[in-house]
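Reply to dn_fold:

You asked what the input looked like. This is it:
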Amino acid sequence: MKKHPLTVFRDQHGLTKTALSERLGVDKSTVSRWENGKRFPPRELWPRIEKITGLSGGDLAVAIAKSGTVRGMEQACQELIGSAPKTLGSGGRD
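and this is what came back:
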């Protein structure tokens, strides 16, 4: 199985989950859930994650989708859809 981009980042920079979580201002278990595909980072954290790691919300969403974890994919979709313009919600029924 391919490593999650956050795991790759940590490995490349010699960071533990604890060290990355401290930089991001979240709990270590939160980083673990992201890397395991059980959760997806909320939009509010995307700018901080991108500033620290260079990974965009889109990069993380692709990683979650490739992981195949249903819960993570559902949450990633909700976060991505939530960031889309409200006019896209009509489903083409206009």
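The mean pLDDT is 79.
Hope that clears it up.
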